[in-house]
């Protein structure tokens, strides 16, 4: 009888009474830093929750942030660490005062949005107070979910949390003097009032974002600061750094950051904790050692050759009060300038402008012998004002010129030229700074050159796996765009394709293979090829996707893929859509309205062998734009897929579909580059001339060929065709006879007339293609049919259709 629950005098269960007592005791301890966590733990004890969390609004009220959680890691439940307050997530609804109780069916309906758990969970979201102070989120894995007592207990937990609610961006009262606490995954930072004073910020104006603080720093110091506050550049341990913040008047202020990156534990993000103090009393101005340190930090994060040049310019031009800096790579005895500061051609010698190549000049090394000699010697050279130099160098620095060879191992990677317009006095400290900077820049330039080469190779491989150009379509225009991720060198798995099909049909395909690797890119190429092959065979859309799914299941891979396949009938303006775990199409109508197609979806490819991939109809009027994209365009850390799709639809609605290429460029203009992005747009205009079509099912009877000939004659006469009828009837006789004699199953005759071309096609159930004989003897009794078809028609051929083939012949009618 362990499941029998006794009730108190007022009808409350013993479990509810126990929960009330425990929560009353915990809530009374207002000073305990673990108060909220201990309250949440009661949801696990008395309500049977597997996970419980409290979300509180940010200072600007735009986001709800995870303030505290208990139970299993949130990633196991599919729960995010932040949600937009204006969104449709259960957390946001509860924050607005509307409790949510969702079961597996409700969650499955929202699984594509990734706002809620996608497994068989039960979810509860309750407001923690009535004036929009956040919410309580609880997840249960039990088969019956939250019963009546569980719901009462969760309500008690929400009430216990409500006073006081922990702020998502606390004022730092529990931090040490000058202390801060930065969440590495969201960039939310808790700081004390003393730190805000150092940055010149009013506490009421601070939004809790680390980017707000970074925007107040000196731009030259930003790369070194980013290397500390971005998780990708750090390991667990201590960090110390000096940097400058801008002041309303006077020179920047020096601050010293001392911090430590600590792990967050299972299911929790890592955090950077430490202090920021005023260091301006320790120095009057930046030292050359600090300049070198900053240059080293900037070059450590410089990825491309252009990044290296910008880092060198930022580290040297302003501190040295130089008028211009040029950075050039040395490539096979040619100097190729990669960075010019200032970038305007008028700021550089006339001889340089004659060698200008679109944006940057290049010239043989022999044209600047002084520079060539300095590179051979491999040491920095300084020429004061009035030094006898060739015009190409003298005009770079009439007041003084410094030339820095950029060494990298046993070779020279390039050169850096620094010029002054007015006479400049070179001190010993400056010479040491220039020498140290040259060594750092040379090594970084070689690394960046290798990265650029590898990045170009990756891009070339990626482009080889995608269509080189899209086909011209009857009654429509299609454009596509692909943007690789800027994070790393891995190949992406996004792909697209446009496949012309018989009878003025066209298939639009877009997909995404899980992961970023050579394996993902290889699988992407295989899936694109497979879908094209199945489509060209003539299968309907659901069969095409189903075949691709079985093929992927048979491959020895752990990867899966998503795709969206749309078969468009250009004559009728109709389409069938099949989704396999992918985003639905977005339709922009001629009047500017946009709809996110309500197309049913199946699971991703390669997950379940026996899966249904239902077809959903789409109706296209002339002027309708069909837009297919991958999640890299609509999903980011700041917004979920639903919000991204809504934003994508609004941008598409505001675009001018008359210039489809410009529309695609505009849609990709602000795309996040943390993931690959593929975009495919088709504008359906409708066919100016629609073909005339008729079909005839050929029965296997002795008079079958005669019936087919009579049907052809009547059809052509009804269309007003009077020429070439005898040749057309001869072709019908031969093709129908071959199909009846050499195949089994159904035989169909299709007749099409468009733009003065008559097409006769006979489809049968045999995939075997007829072969034209190379020679026929005078005694042969067969084999002449294909030769006759070839002789009397303008063209002939075969096409695969679902389960068989189609043999066709075309005539150009005389007018």
Automatic annotation (TrEMBL):
Originating organism: Streptomyces griseoloalbus
Entries under Gene3D superfamilies matching the protein: 3.30.450.40, Histidine kinase-like ATPase, C-terminal domain (3.30.565.10), PAS domain (3.30.450.20), PPM-type phosphatase domain (3.60.40.10)
Function comment: Primarily acts as an independent SigF regulator that is sensitive to the osmosensory signal, mediating the cross talk of PknD with the SigF regulon. Possesses both phosphatase and kinase activities. The kinase domain functions as a classic anti-sigma factor-like kinase to phosphorylate the anti-anti-sigma factor domain at the canonical regulatory site, and the phosphatase domain antagonizes this activity.
Single GO MF annotation: kinase activity
PROSITE patterns noted in UniProt: PAC (PS50113)
Hydrolase listed as a keyword: yes
Superkingdom per UniProt: Bacteria
PAC domain sequence ranges: 239-291
Its EC number(s): 3.1.3.16
Keyword match Protease: no
Entry-linked InterPro entries: Bact_Sigma-Reg (IPR052016), GAF (IPR003018), GAF-like_dom_sf (IPR029016), HATPase_C_sf (IPR036890), HATPase_dom (IPR003594), PAS (IPR000014), PAS-assoc_C (IPR000700), PAS-like_dom_sf (IPR035965)
Keyword terms of this UniProt record: ATP-binding, Hydrolase, Kinase, Magnesium, Manganese, Metal-binding, Nucleotide-binding, Phosphoprotein, Protein phosphatase, Transferase
Catalytic activities: O-phospho-L-seryl-[protein] + H2O = L-seryl-[protein] + phosphate
Protein name, UniProt field: protein-serine/threonine phosphatase
